[in-house]
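sry for the spam today, last one i promise. struct tokens for design, 722 residues
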């Protein structure tokens, strides 16, 4: 019965709140758990440090001749932080983080024990890779891959279930050199951006050009639910979302929650999270309530894309771990509660370098503005040409609940530029460049400063891909996802467009065209071919959905089943191959792995829905029915006629639910499919629809059955009791 539910409410309302701690000074916490460059400099011989620093800046593999010295210094530092173990941390194709822990202990020939950590094990590790999805890249008989330290991401210590562990961020590749992880393609995509951006910058007349790389700042949304409740919800525990549950009477219409006061208990939790992040050198910056009750957000200062990605993974880990310590369950799922706002991860992205600065920043001179327009034009071309790829990299079973649900961007990829910038590009398209504002923007030597907006001001929240002053913000990314995939896609399409621009510019300049004229010509061509992707209106509206597809020729791919097969298209394969980011084999393996994950998570959910309906909802309904029947028959005994309509109603709902449960169970036992694509479609359409059917009846029963019998914590309770 609902004893457990009542008990949970009792425990929660009577809990002792952890007291506020006076926050420590930032300088006392900052990066204390990271083996930073400064710490390396302190502990390493000068020549070794110099060589290591060079390696870090170029991203090349560590020089083996210095690896032993670096390893020893790293170990000594880690042991001074009480570490007993070390782990190569890597990022498999699931959205999780994986690590293999080893002890520093090494048994000597004479049986004595010393702590050992050689350069060899720092540089290379061999996890049992066979347990990680690889999409058929390695068959199990050649199961091993290896991990290798990514020197551009610093090592750190972290308290885990094992105790304190030295964690070393690594890439994970097969012995034949194929990327089995998310980090390797990210590093490759970054160097593709570097090469192509350098070409363009040279053509624009720069001579001093530092390495160009991408940056990322990811805003993470999440829900907190009291663990007492979560423990009584098998769906939350196993699927990360509620598969059943009637939306509360008091819902999201109470928008005052947004930016409202953060509840005290949550604030104390956030404080602990932030301390932990600061110690790991993660620059957490903003925190606030989100739209839904129980929903919050954390965002860091942006960092280089590779480090930001590692830090984002760590942030998710720490949110989950710290939540447990505070009696919460942290839900990173994109849609934990039906009918309540979901969670996303806005990925803010820009490219730049030390010498030219942020290349997506409009700048203060006409020259800088022309350069900005070139890079911005490259993004426009890329997003139009490869919009379906951007859709594919955010395609997961859980994110499908969010995209297109009028709270998150639609599944149609378009760009928002802001009115002024859109106007500039429209003028370019029309060739209206003389005497206008645009002439000032483009031509060097004009006195009046151009008016490219620093901040578009009017933030359009309905666009999946928005220019926000000096960066683009990709808003279709799911809260539970690694940011690596989206960053790889953005970097790769940008690199491709920059190469295309560089080719064109070279050609024009060779023919003697003046630089500005050449730029204008190329941007005009981009706008003519790709300007259709720019849209400043309401992305949620019906009209846009119609117009995007019918007039603009943009794709609307509502489900993962529609979006993932994009990865198998020829022009996508060629793009990744040409840019040196993913080989055709690596790309295909990604399609296989992601498709597998989609099917697996839907299968787990389908089984769970059926199970909960049968073993929780059905017995509860029967119990209530029997109570009602007893009462009715007692009434009859004393000559009164009771009303049978409620009994009939509940009985009908229960029977209907069980019919749908049977259909669902039959549906997931179908096994013959022509192709993976066909199976994806079947799950997206048939299986998901049946899950919704079961839920419909279960939720209707929740509305009828006596509250004191209902065993599952309700939406009302989970979202409002703190
Ligand atoms: P909002 O909620 O208005 O979208 P936030 O301030 O919450 O904005 O988050 C903005 C994110 O964008 C932060 O992580 C911030 O560091 C990041 N950001 C700012 N400038 C850049 C840039 N040039 N490149 C990448 N990310 C950036
Ligand atoms: Mg944002």
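last one done:
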């Amino acid at each position: 019965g609902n004893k457990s539910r009542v008990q949970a409410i009792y425990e929660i309302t009577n809990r002792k709140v952890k007291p506020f701690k006076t926050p420590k000074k930032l300088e006392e916490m900052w990066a204390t758990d990271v083996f930073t460059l400064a710490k390396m400099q302190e502990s390493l011989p000068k020549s070794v440090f110099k060589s290591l620093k060079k390696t870090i800046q170029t991203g090349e593999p560590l020089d083996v001749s210095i690896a032993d010295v670096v390893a020893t210094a790293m170990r000594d530092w880690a042991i001074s932080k009480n570490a007993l173990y070390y782990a190569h941390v890597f990022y498999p194709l699931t959205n999780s983080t994986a690590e293999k822990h080893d002890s520093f202990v090494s048994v000597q020939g004479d049986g004595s024990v010393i702590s050992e950590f050689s350069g060899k094990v720092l540089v290379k590790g061999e996890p049992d890779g066979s347990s990680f999805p690889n999409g058929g890249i390695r068959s199990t008989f050649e199961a091993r891959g290896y991990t290798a330290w990514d020197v551009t991401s610093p090592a750190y210590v972290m308290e885990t279930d094992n105790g304190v562990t030295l964690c070393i961020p690594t890439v994970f590749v097969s012995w034949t050199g194929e990327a089995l992880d998310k980090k390797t393609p990210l590093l490759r995509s970054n160097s593709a951006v570097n090469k192509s951006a350098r070409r363009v910058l040279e053509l624009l007349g720069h001579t001093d050009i530092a390495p160009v790389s991408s940056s990322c700042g990811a805003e993470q949304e999440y829900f907190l639910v009291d663990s007492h409740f979560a423990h009584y919800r098998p769906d939350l525990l196993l699927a990360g979302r509620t598969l059943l549950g009637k939306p509360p009477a008091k819902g999201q219409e109470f928008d005052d929650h947004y930016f409202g006061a953060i509840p005290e208990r949550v604030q104390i939790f956030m404080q602990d999270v932030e301390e932990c992040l600061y110690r790991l050198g993660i620059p957490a910056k903003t925190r606030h309530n989100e739209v839904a009750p129980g929903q919050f957000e954390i965002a860091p200062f942006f960092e280089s894309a590779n480090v930001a990605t590692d830090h984002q993974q760590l942030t998710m880990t720490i949110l989950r771990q710290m939540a447990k310590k505070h009696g919460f369950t942290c839900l990173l799922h994109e849609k934990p509660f039906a009918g309540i706002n979901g969670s996303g991860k806005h990925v803010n992205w820009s490219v730049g370098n030390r010498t030219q600065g942020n290349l997506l920043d409009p700048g203060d001179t006409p020259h800088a503005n022309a350069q900005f327009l070139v890079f911005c034009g490259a993004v426009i071309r890329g997003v139009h040409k490869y919009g379906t790829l951007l859709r594919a990299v955010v395609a997961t079973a859980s994110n499908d609940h969010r995209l297109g649900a009028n709270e998150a961007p639609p599944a149609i990829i378009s760009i928002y530029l802001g009115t002024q910038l859109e106007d500039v590009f429209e003028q370019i398209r029309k060739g209206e460049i003389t005497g206008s504002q645009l002439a000032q923007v483009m031509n060097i030597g004009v006195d009046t400063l151009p008016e490219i907006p620093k901040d578009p001001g009017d933030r359009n929240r309905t666009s999946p891909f928005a220019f926000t002053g000096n960066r683009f913000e990709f808003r279709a990314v799911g809260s539970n996802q690694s940011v690596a995939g989206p960053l790889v896609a953005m970097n790769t399409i940008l690199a491709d467009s920059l190469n295309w621009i560089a080719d064109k510019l070279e050609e024009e300049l060779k023919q003697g065209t003046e630089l500005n004229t050449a730029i204008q010509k190329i941007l005009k061509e981009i706008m003519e071919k790709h300007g259709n992707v720019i849209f400043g209106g309401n992305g949620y509206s019906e009209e846009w959905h119609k117009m995007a597809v019918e007039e603009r020729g943009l794709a609307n791919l509502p489900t993962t089943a529609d979006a993932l097969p994009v990865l198998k298209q020829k022009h996508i394969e060629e793009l990744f191959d040409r840019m040196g980011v993913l080989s055709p084999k690596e790309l295909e393996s990604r399609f296989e792995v992601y498709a597998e994950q989609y099917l697996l998570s839907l299968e787990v959910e389908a089984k769970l829905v059926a199970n909960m309906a049968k073993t929780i909802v059905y017995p509860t309904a029967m119990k209530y029915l029997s109570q009602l029947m007893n009462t009715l028959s007692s009434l009859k005994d004393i000559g009164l006629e009771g009303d049978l309509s409620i009994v009939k109603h509940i009985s009908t709902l229960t029977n209907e639910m069980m019919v749908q449960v049977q259909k669902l169970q039959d549906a997931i036992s179908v096994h013959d499919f022509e192709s993976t694509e066909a199976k994806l479609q079947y799950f997206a359409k048939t299986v998901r629809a049946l899950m919704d059917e079961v839920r419909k009846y279960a939720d209707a029963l929740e509305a009828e059955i006596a509250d004191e019998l209902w065993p599952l914590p309700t939406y009302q309770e989970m979202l409002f009791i703190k």
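Residues 215-217, 219, 286, 299-302, 346, 348-350, 358, 470-471 surround adenosine-5'-diphosphate (ligand 1) (CB under 6 Å). ok im logging off now
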